[in-house]
Specification:
Layout lengths: L2 E2 L2 E7 L2 E2 L5 E5 L2 E6 L6 E9 L3 E11 L25 H19 L6 E2 L14 E8 L7 E6 L7 E3 L8 H17 L13 E8 L6 E7 L7 H11 L3 E8 L11 E6 L3 E6 L2 E6 L8 H15 L6 E5 L5 H7 L4 E6 L2 H13 L5 E5 L2 H6 L1 H5 L4 E4 L8 H9 L4 E6 L2 H13 L2 E2 L2 E5 L9 E8 L1
Length: 457
């Protein structure tokens, strides 16, 4: 076989799946992380990077297929960056996700006696997302050609034309096709991420699972659409399901689908979803759990584990737009939510008013700073709820949380590794973690949510 430094082709046996969705094999006593391949398969792989402790490679041919391999339903699977494991049987996806949680709890947190419950499967394996962002990409400053779709796997600067995504609804697919045609026939210039010129940047579609509402959010460079009346009239005629159209302007070089200036082109400028008996108003730039049906299951499982009491005073950290806090406010005496993002706090207060809840207050600010202030200590919280970003808690914030000595500490995580790191410190401070519940929020991806409830020993 060819061997030229790091670039060599080898035969490997795939044994596992890693946290980032890579397949795991071994060569010459080192771990090899592979793009492609499933456990139980024999593959031919090209090694493109060799480090002292591991190597990286890509599968070029599957010699022996695993019995768990299935035919992907998405026509874009081979090159799209959205779904990593659509070629793996769903039950096996769940098994490997739970295994990764077990590994983190036992090896990183060093808690071998914590019970790892069976993973909570998603009710829908396809068409489950309530939000998708699609990017416009020009062929260059001298080209009239462009694409509208998703990123190719591993490429930030290459967008393919999407026609049939299996993550959001069939309506979403039709909207993408229609918007591509609209931009082409109206001659609207597409944004060039290298030259920072052009107009059309993103198409964002948000939908609700329970109320049947749909938002179209068009993110552009600075400037108004040439003919908004014609645009909204055409959307209304072609898609009566669309209840609001919003235009966000973003002239920043950072390629993110948020807006500095927002204008409502039609409808109320928001959609509303119902979860757990509460109603939530979702705006173009609001955070909301991306899988509505599974979010409801996640919260129900978390509250069952927490078992809040009517007299509880709850501190909800990283509260976002207030979903967890509002659902707990129905079950507890009082809730305080803390969030750094100003727009999220505005939405949280709006949602509290929408649901007539006067036993919940929201504070805008850094969690670490809030916990150090006298306000946190004076409130005498019985329960603290943490739903942090993937990085987990800042060490100083975690220290302040522990110092408040809550009766229970509910931790919802989207990263088993950082959860395990924080869990080790919490248990070391005198708390027990009886059990952890993994939750599959995003089928066919490597992402895993989990719930843990700490109690003093």
């Amino acid at each position: 076989m060819a061997d030229s430094g790091n670039d060599k082709t080898v035969r490997l046996e795939v044994t596992d799946l890693a946290f980032d969705g890579k397949a795991v094999a071994h060569l010459d006593g080192k771990v090899v992380f592979l793009n492609g391949g499933l456990p139980g398969e024999t593959v031919e792989a090209r090694i493109f990077q060799s480090k002292p402790r591991f190597s990286r490679g890509r599968v070029v041919r599957i010699i022996e297929k695993a019995p768990e391999r299935v035919e992907p339903r998405c026509p874009h699977f081979e090159y799209c960056g959205g779904c990593t494991w659509q070629d793996l049987d769903y039950d096996q996806q769940l098994r490997f996700k739970r295994k990764q949680v077990v590994d983190c709890i036992e090896r990183l947190a060093k808690l071998p006696h914590t019970e790892i419950s069976e993973i909570l499967p998603a009710p829908d394996q396809f068409f489950y997302r309530n939000k998708m962002e699609f990017s416009f990409h020009t062929g260059g400053p001298e080209s009239d050609d462009f694409t509208l779709g998703l990123h190719r796997r591993g490429r930030f600067d290459d967008i393919f034309d999407l026609h049939d995504c299996r993550l959001q609804s069939e309506l979403s697919n039709r909207l993408v096709t229609w918007m591509r045609d609209y931009v082409r026939r109206t001659g609207l210039p597409v944004y060039d991420v290298k030259q920072h010129t052009g107009f059309m940047r993103f198409l964002m579609i948000r939908q609700t699972a329970h109320t049947g509402q749909t938002m179209v959010n068009l993110v552009t460079n600075y400037g108004d659409f040439p003919d908004t009346e014609s645009l909204t009239a055409e959307i209304a005629e072609a898609f009566p399901e669309v209840t609001t159209v919003v235009h966000n302007q973003n002239g920043q070089k950072s390629n993110i689908a948020t807006g500095e200036i927002e204008k409502v082109l039609s409808g109320p400028g928001y959609i509303e979803e119902e979860l757990g008996g509460c109603r939530f108003r979702i705006r173009a730039n609001s955070f909301f759990q991306t899988n509505s049906l599974q979010a409801e299951n996640l919260y129900n499982a978390a509250f069952e584990m927490l078992a809040p009491e009517p007299s509880d005073r709850i501190l909800d950290l990283y509260c976002g737009t207030g979903a967890i806090g509002l659902l707990l406010a129905v079950r507890a005496e009082h809730v305080i939510g803390v969030e750094l993002v100003a727009d999220a706090i505005v939405s949280a207060r709006e949602n509290a008013a929408l649901n007539g809840r006067d036993n919940i207050d929201f504070y805008e600010g850094n969690v670490k700073d809030f916990l150090k202030a006298e306000t946190a200590a004076a409130a005498e919280h019985d329960v603290i709820v943490i739903d942090p970003p993937r990085a987990g808690l800042h060490p100083k914030a975690l220290k302040e949380v522990i110092a408040l000595k809550p009766r229970k500490l509910l931790y919802i995580s989207c990263n088993p590794a950082t959860f395990a790191r924080d869990a080790e410190r919490i248990v070391g401070a005198g708390y027990a973690l009886p059990s952890v519940r993994p939750v599959d929020m995003f089928p066919h991806t490597m992402h895993i949510e989990l719930i843990g409830c700490f109690e003093p020993t």
